[in-house]
Structures are given as C-alpha cells and as structure tokens.
# Entry
Amino acid sequence: MMMNSQALVPITVAKGDGIGPEIMDATLAIIQAAGARIAIEEIAIGEKLYTKGILTGIEDSSWESLRRTKVFLKAPITTPQGGGVKSLNVTTRKTLGLYANIRPCVSYDPFVRTKHPTMDVVIVRENEEDLYAGIEYRQSDDVYQCLKLITRPGSEKIIRYAFEYAVANNRKKVTCFTKDNIMKMTDGIFHKVFDQVGEEYPDIEKEHWIVDIGAAKLADTPEAFDVIVMPNLYGDILSDVAAQIAGSVGLAGSANIGDHCAMFEAIHGSAPRRAGQNLANPSGLLLGAVQMLVHIDQPDVAANVHNAWLKTLEDGIHTYDIFKEGISKQKVGTKEFAQAVIERLGQQPVSFKPVVYNAKPPATEKKPTFTPTVPAKKETMGVDVYVHSHTLNAGQLAEKLLAAATPNLKLKIISSRGQKVWPNGFAETFTVDHWRCRHFNPSGQPVTLADIIALLTTINAQGLDVIKTENLCTFDGVEGWTGVQGG
Ligand code: NAD
# Structure
C-alpha cells in the first residue's frame, strides 16, 4: 500500500554503540515491514562523539531534531567510566523532562525458561530525581557526599502516572517501594504522596513495601505484584532484576515518558563483548519500539509486530541468550531472528494470548500531572555547621564551638556520620574528619541569616574549617530536619 508522506510521523533514531547498530537495524526492518508510518531522522550519539572530545555524547543539532520530533528511538550506548563524562542516558531523560520510565517485565513460559511462569510486572521508575541528580562533593579527606533529592511534585507526577497507567491498562494493583523507615523525609514524602494520590483511585488496590523485603518478595514471588512504582535508584536496580528473572535482560523494553517528549529503548546496555557478531537479541529494543508505536497512535502496527514476535518465540526461534536445548527449536543470530519475525507479520500467536492495542481515546481535558505546592510559613530555628578537622576530637571541637557561640546561636549537639558524639558520646563510636555541629537559639526563637553569618564569623575566628551549613527550618511549625541518631 502506498503511504501518504503527510501521514508519516517523524521520529529521531540513534543506533548507539556495541550491539546497538545490529539490534536497531533489526528493529527498524521489522517495524517498517509491518507498515510503521514513520519518517526516520538519524542522529549520532555516544562513543563516536566521546572520542571526538564531545563529553556530552550528543551534538546541538541532535537536540534540535529531538525537540522537533519529540519521539526518540534509542539503541544502547557505552558510557565511559570516569573522565568527566556524564551519562547521556541520564542527561537525555532530564533535559527532555522524561520523568516516567515504564518497564514491563513479562514471562514467556514455557518457551523462555523462567522460575516464574506467570510473572507479569510493570515497574514504573521515577526517572529524574533521587541520587541521580548527579550532585556529589568531596567534603573532607575522608568524606564523599551524594545528594538524594526527592521533590513533592516529582513524586506526585510519577505516582499519578503509575495509577493512570494501571487504569488505562486494566491493572488491578499499584505497589509502592520505599525505605522510609530510614529516609524519613525523602522516601517519606514519596510514600506520603503515594497514600494521598492513591485515595483518588478507589478501584485500584494499593500497598506499600519497605524496599528491602519488597525486593526479596519480587525476586521470589513476582506474581504477587502488578504495577510497582518507586524512586529512581530502586527502580533502576529492581527493573533489571525483574527483567532477568522473567527470562533475560535482552527481552525487556522501556518507555521514558515526559510531558513534551518520549524516548524508547531496551533496558539492557551496549553489551560490547557481543558486538559485531550477529548474536544479540533485538527483542528488548523491538518491544521498546512497540511501546513507541502505541505512543504515536499506530496501535495496529504495534499489535502486528508484537504478535509476530510472540509467534516467533513460541515457534522456538531463539537467540543465544534464551536458547535452551529441549525447549528451543532453532538458534539464530540477530538478522535471522528479525527475518523470522518479519515472516510472521500478520500471524497471531497460538499458545500466548494475542496482544491487542487500542487507539488512543479522544483527547479529553487533561488532569494536571501535579498539584502546585502552597508555600508554608517557614522559620529558621537553627543551623547545622559542618566542620572538617582530623586533629580535634569531639570534646575539643565542642570547646571551640562553645567559645564561638553568639547570643542567638549556641552549640547543642555534634554528630559524625549522623551519630551523636557530643555531649556524652561513646568512645566506641567510630569518627572521621567530618563533623556536623547543630546550633539552636537558646531562647527557642527563630534566627535570621544575619545570625548565621555572625556565628560563622566567630567560628572562623576560632580557626575552624567550615565545609557548609544547612538551615534547620520549620514549615507551618513542622520540623524540616531529622533528629540526630542517638541524640
Ligand atoms: P549490558 O546490559 O550491556 O550487558 C550485560 C550482559 O547481558 C551482556 O554481556 C550480555 O551477556 C547480556 N545482554 C545484554 N543485552 C543483550 C542482548 N540484547 N542480547 C543478548 N545478550 C544481552 O550491561 P553492561 O555490560 O554492564 O554495560 C555495557 C555498557 O552499556 C556500559 O558502558 C553501560 O554504561 C552501558 N549501558 C547503557 C544503557 C543504555 O544505553 N540505556 C543501559 C545500561 C548500560
């Protein structure tokens, strides 16, 4: 059938590094044979640019293509370790505001060996915040810091997305994983927002697990879960675990969705050791492309590709990573696998349930993705002053800081690595050269920035090495800091 070029949807494509070009060629061959109505703009990213000294791994002209097409099909790239290179994956997600990372992890039993034959879990991973803010410092000889940033709007956006996804895809339950028994403020807000947003979805079952035992349960009994929403780091780790126990990391695709743009990829990396040998399984990227076809409103093509792929799997035509003697029928390379899928376009799987994708419902008034925060009454009640010293012990440091006290700010407690060491510290507590010195106004009244500057001036006069300060603020009277361990 002749396509009207007017109807073609422009998409930006990057073939990436390692196995990237092979799996992308296979994916494009399949979706084009299935009649995808797309116009491809190819951009170069990754190693080719790093070796030219472009440390971002992407050129300005490529951003221009991405901002215009708003749809990115991306093969994996190799991220050099160290050397000032930032991960292009993280940069792309954050620059384009792709806050939701959707990773379906499905078993294909009995055709792909798995200990979890009925597993069908979708991991919804927050994609921009948490420890991936990339804000790290060396603060002393001994101490390195990475800031974990969780925002209320960021949490609301991803949690709302997870519930909306559950409704749209006829899922019954949304589970939240956090570690809010320890990280009471950061993971705490994520959990709180989950409870609040969840109330708007009475028909969906809701539950929360502490991430450690939740991860153990996921690895042991994945069929107990449906949709799981979690902050960035837990989602990164556990989606790989989930994909692997479903059968292979080579089988899972992922969608990165934002309000303006979307990116589709495999969850695995560039597997450099497998590159150039026609070995890699293109399925992860192909399923990413299926998600893309649904996104660009070509559900007919998406279903055609997905069903042909399922038929290929059940016909036992497998790449090396999922090939098992006795289960598989034919071990094939990347190109032959793609050809086998192409030959099955138009066919339905027999053992697997055929996939149906619906056309997007007509645009209705879109709910806002988050509710704006109403600013609270904020008062500064004290300040933590971080000091670097490897010569003073806690008692000696306290003596100097008490000598530096001002009328409005006086030392109350010192901790090292979060554990109280003064007053009444234990000799057994291990300390390093990094001290958090908590000051409050003895009168219990709020303090001003001028009070803090006055304190820093007197501490400086004591010859102490100040690293940084953190203000201790209340918001509508609620403390915006956590207590000191043992304090
Ligand atoms: P990886 O996912 O690339 O590979 C790990 C192993 O999994 C491979 O050795 C291979 O045995 C297997 N594997 C992965 N994909 C496969 C496929 N399609 N078919 C068959 N087998 C497959 O992980 P890695 O080795 O830790 O990372 C390699 C590079 O990829 C690194 O530079 C890393 O930074 C990068 N990476 C990129 C992305 C991305 O672009 N989205 C994601 C993860 C890792």
Summary: Residues 1-6 have pLDDT under 50 and may be disordered.
